[in-house]
User: Which sequence fits this backbone?
């Protein structure tokens, strides 16, 4: 019996030693190593100030502890005037995750190149991009007071689509008490030399997009004889000029470390239509 | 051509059933070996001696019905010697006349005190045949399981080569195979997942089980439709002699068990019911909040006729809860099963036969507080006939199983391949034939073949071979080999990237998809040293093809596209047992490596290679288990310590909080959280280890009433073992901390 007890005791002792030797390392590494990398998102609103640029450390997991520190400086430089501004970080917490939003106090101007530069204070590595704001566009209504099935035309100037600018447009008609909007465009003609863009719709086409082809209303059933038009003119990024950090462009599709800083401004116009001009309409005209 | 194997089997079966093949049979001695209560004794060694001869002329091992027969005997007088651990050796003379088939039921008397050492006596769980571990209720009782009675799950988890990826979820990975590649049979009823949401418990308490065979691979052709492993559970026979019962309560489980003869010595019934009490008690024990509940009911009616044994078994299990209490994902599953099984050994039949008929249903769901989002259901019906015939001095086992499966389910955009949901049926005819050929006194071959046929496809021929070699012509040293081809028609698709959910969508193999197939190869060496030591070592290799796995992309998304992977598993398991009176000590070590190779969607651009080889989440390289059981002064002390190397996990390459520029305002919009995967399963979690302890004692309050008590603790030294890592938010969810318990029971008979 004594031998048996010794065997049990020795085994227990061995177990305890094993346990002690194994209970140390409980660490896990959720994210791959390597240099810090950052995504930069900056909507620059030409009409407003201040503006903010979001910087996210893409090597931080999405919790409060990891997203709170961010050891970078951000600077924006107006390359036309040479004026530069070091940006202050404004921390905003969403659902426990900290976001770093760098405040731009300088006004964002039309037709100007801005350099946005990030410096990692730990490594000294910089990452930068140049964003170009658009020229101010003018709206010219080329044709209005049209009937339900006749196109009205709008011309926008100073649109440089070839350089990378973008134009988002919407039109709306009033149905009942609501203005109903659609981003769809029927006809679009771009003149590269003149940098003008001509857009056209018929009122019934707009109605068809909004209501669907089966339920659409004749324009004479709209509750307003006006059509609203609005657009957002968006600038472009010349490109990431810094090769010292891995660039998102090497990953197609969904990519990490995006660097997007784009300017925008918006404008709008009203277009008069004349539903009673449409003689072929089977619905009685309600506008007299 | 695809049904060629089926036609071949049909011809073979016709020939086997033909009376022209057989010569007039010699005398036959048939025995049913059982305990006094009527419980069949499985794997007992039976030696046949001619009259007063010293050396035995033949030997046999009892089947799961306690059946053994000796054929080709001349008329005369024979002595039978039957031995089994825990019972007095049985010796008796029997006479048989020419051409007679004599049938005898033998009741063995329990032995108290030291057990006799006999050459043929086995101790503990037997692993004598490659890939197979036979477990008795007594083995199950040795492992601490947070309740007074042992549980099959607790025992299986001590086995090398068996992996569970945490202490919750009810999933078992056996030698590289996934849970849906396992076949679980309960008295021949196929069940999909009879394991509870707490991995401490299965649906099989010690008291409801007679014996279990865990076949980690290399199983013979009588088991079809599984490409990895088989867990074959035989429920116990209710006491045929007297009424008995028990009830117990612990902070984790309450149980009731009743067994009674319906006609003394002829028929009996047992009913076992268990319900979890974890939710109710977890707050009092200082453990983390628990949200899991389960219950199970098992019952078996047994009828033992003079020339047949029949049973009607039924089971119902239900699980519901959250395996990550910080998430809102609720999981649930139920198993329903009922089946009749009859084993006939009437002398009018040249050979014994078995007929089984039954039904089982399984459903699992995933949802949240507001309802079920995903569900999957499998209904199965079967009619199985197993027979035996003798040709040219070889005994052939053959059988047919007509198996009907019906599938339905909604994945709710989780798996893009099943956007329309699943509705399908599958009718399978399984045919098999195998034999045992004793080439020399030391060498036994067991070749076999089988096939599975549906209206749409055939699995082709599945040849299998088992070889047993006893170099010293005794059973102290044994080498065995098992190899063969395997296929299965049922597919379980899960997203292993989400450890917070075990939801599995079951489907029949699609008409255009190839069947899952596997090749197994196992080499086993088993040796007994001296009186008390037994060791077993197995080296194995498994190759799986057409495994449905999620296609890896760089983004963490809700929708998962499935692709086919090839899996290679190799490893080695080692067991050492010491059994000497009150001391039982077991240590097991398992080494394994699992590697999958699959196509990645856009991984070529992301990681530079489209074909991905990776070690899946259940690839645990090293596992050590040691179990000590010591009985002293009426106490029963058990320690079970488990160590496992870390499971693989996938790192992320980068995170993001995407804004829609130039429209989103950074100060008002959080942005879209995104994470980008690195290579699949490139890192490993820290090691896992846990000690469970228990101390049991029974007090006799009266000749018919016993009080049982047990104190113990699961994870006794409160190790922080990682169960789940939400890699995006870096949320680490640990497995259960220390779980102390006091369990009480009342037993009466």
Assistant:
């Amino acid at each position: 019996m004594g031998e048996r007890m010794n065997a049990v005791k020795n085994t227990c002792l061995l177990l305890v030693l094993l346990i002690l030797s194994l209970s140390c390392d409980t660490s896990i590494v959720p994210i791959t190593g390597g240099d810090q990398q950052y995504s930069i998102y900056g909507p620059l609103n030409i009409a407003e100030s201040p503006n903010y640029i979001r910087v996210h450390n893409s090597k931080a997991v999405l919790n409060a502890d990891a997203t709170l520190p961010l050891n970078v400086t951000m600077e924006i430089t107006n390359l036309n005037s040479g004026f530069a501004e070091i940006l202050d970080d404004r921390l905003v917490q969403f659902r426990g995750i900290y976001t770093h939003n760098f405040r731009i106090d300088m006004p964002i101007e039309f037709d100007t190149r801005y350099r946005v530069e990030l410096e990692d204070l730990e490594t000294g590595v910089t990452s930068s991009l140049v964003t170009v704001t658009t020229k101010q566009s003018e709206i010219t209504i080329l044709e209005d007071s049209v009937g339900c099935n006749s196109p009205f035309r709008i011309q926008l100037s100073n649109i440089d689509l070839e350089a990378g600018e973008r134009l988002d447009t919407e039109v709306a008609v009033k149905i009942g008490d609501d203005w109903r909007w659609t981003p769809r465009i029927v006809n679009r003609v771009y003149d590269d030399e003149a940098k003008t863009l001509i857009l056209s719709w018929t009122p019934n086409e707009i109605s068809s997009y909004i209501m669907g082809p089966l339920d659409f209303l004749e324009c004479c059933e709209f509750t307003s004889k006006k059509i609203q038009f609005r657009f957002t003119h968006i600038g472009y990024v010349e490109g990431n000029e810094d090769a010292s950090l891995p660039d998102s462009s090497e990953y197609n599709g969904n990519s990490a470390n995006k660097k997007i800083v784009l300017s925008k401004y918006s404008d709008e116009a009203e277009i008069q239509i004349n539903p009673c001009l449409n003689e072929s309409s089977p619905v009685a005209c309600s506008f007299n | 051509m695809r049904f060629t194997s089926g036609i071949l089997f049909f011809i073979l079966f016709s020939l086997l059933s033909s009376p022209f093949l057989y010569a007039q049979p010699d005398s036959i001695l048939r025995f049913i070996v059982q305990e006094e209560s009527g419980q069949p004794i499985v794997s007992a060694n039976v030696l046949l001696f001619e009259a007063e001869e010293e050396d035995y002329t033949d030997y046999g091992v009892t089947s799961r019905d306690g059946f053994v027969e000796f054929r080709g005997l001349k008329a005369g007088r024979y002595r039978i010697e039957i031995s089994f651990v825990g019972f007095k050796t049985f010796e008796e003379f029997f006479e048989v006349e020419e051409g007679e088939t004599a049938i005898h039921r033998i009741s063995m008397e329990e032995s108290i005190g030291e057990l006799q050492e006999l050459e043929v006596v086995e101790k503990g769980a037997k692993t004598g045949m490659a890939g197979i571990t036979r477990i008795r209720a007594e083995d199950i009782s040795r492992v601490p399981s947070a309740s007074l009675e042992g549980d099959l799950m607790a025992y299986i988890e001590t086995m090398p080569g068996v992996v569970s990826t945490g202490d919750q979820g009810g999933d078992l990975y056996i030698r590289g195979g996934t849970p849906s590649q396992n076949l679980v049979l309960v008295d021949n009823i196929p069940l999909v997942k009879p394991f509870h949401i707490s991995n401490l418990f299965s649906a099989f308490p010690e008291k409801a089980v007679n014996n279990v065979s865990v076949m980690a691979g290399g199983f013979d052709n009588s088991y079809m439709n599984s490409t990895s492993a088989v867990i074959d559970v035989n429920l116990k026979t209710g006491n045929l002699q007297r009424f008995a019962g028990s009830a117990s309560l612990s902070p984790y489980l309450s149980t009731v068990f009743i067994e009674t003869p319906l006609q003394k010595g002829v028929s009996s019934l047992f009913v076992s019911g268990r319900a979890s009490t974890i939710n109710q008690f977890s707050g009092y024990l200082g453990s983390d909040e628990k949200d899991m509940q389960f219950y199970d009911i098992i019952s078996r009616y047994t009828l033992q006729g003079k020339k047949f044994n029949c049973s009607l078994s039924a089971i119902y299990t239900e699980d519901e809860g959250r395996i990550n209490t910080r998430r809102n994902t609720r999981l649930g599953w139920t198993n329903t099963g009922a089946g009749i099984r009859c084993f006939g050994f009437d002398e009018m039949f040249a050979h014994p036969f078995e007929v089984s008929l039954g039904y089982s249903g399984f459903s699992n769901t995933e949802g949240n507080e507001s309802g079920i989002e995903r569900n999957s259901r499998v209904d199965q019906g079967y009619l199985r006939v197993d027979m035996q015939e003798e040709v040219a001095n070889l005994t052939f086992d053959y059988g047919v199983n007509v198996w009907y499966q019906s599938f339905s389910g909604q994945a709710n955009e989780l798996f893009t391949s099943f956007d329309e949901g699943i509705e399908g049926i599958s009718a399978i005819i399984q045919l098999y034939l195998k034999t045992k050929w004793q080439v020399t006194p030391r060498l036994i071959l067991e070749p076999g073949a089988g096939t599975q046929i549906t209206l749409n496809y055939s699995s082709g021929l599945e040849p299998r071979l088992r070889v047993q070699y006893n170099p010293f012509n005794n059973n102290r040293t044994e080498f065995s080999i098992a190899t063969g081809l395997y296929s299965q028609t049922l597919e379980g698709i899960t997203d292993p990237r989400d450890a917070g959910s075990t939801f599995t969508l079951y489907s029949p193999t699609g008409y255009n998809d190839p069947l899952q197939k596997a090749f197994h190869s196992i080499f086993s060496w088993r040796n007994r040293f001296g009186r008390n030591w037994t060791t077993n070592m197995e080296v194995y290799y498994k190759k799986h093809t057409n495994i449905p796995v999620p296609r890896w992309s760089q983004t963490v998304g809700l929708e998962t596209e499935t692709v086919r992977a090839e899996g290679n598993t190799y490893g080695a398991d080692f067991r050492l047992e010491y059994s000497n009176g009150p001391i039982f000590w077991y240590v097991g070590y398992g080494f394994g490596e699992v590697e999958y190779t699959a196509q990645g969607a856009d991984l070529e651009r992301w990681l530079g290679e489209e074909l991905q080889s990776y070690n899946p989440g259940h690839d645990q390289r090293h596992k050590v288990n040691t179990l000590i059981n010591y009985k002293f002064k009426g106490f029963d002390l058990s320690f079970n310590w488990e160590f496992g190397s870390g499971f693989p996990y996938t790192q992320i390459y980068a995170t993001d909080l995407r804004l829609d520029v130039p429209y989103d305002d950074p100060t008002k919009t959080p942005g879209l959280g995104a994470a980008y995967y690195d290579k699949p399963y490139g890192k490993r979690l820290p090691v896992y280890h846990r000690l469970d302890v228990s101390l049991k004692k029974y007090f006799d309050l009266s000749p018919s009433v016993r009080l049982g008590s047990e104190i113990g603790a699961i994870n006794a030294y409160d190790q922080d073992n990682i169960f789940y890592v939400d890699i995006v938010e870096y949320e680490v969810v640990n497995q259960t901390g220390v779980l102390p318990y006091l369990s009480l029971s009342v037993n009466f008979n």
About this structure: DSSP finds five helices and 45 strands in chain B. Confidence is low (pLDDT under 50) at residues 114-128 of chain B. Helices of chain B lie at 4-17, 137-141, 152-156, 278-281, 603-607. The radius of gyration of chain B is 26 Å.
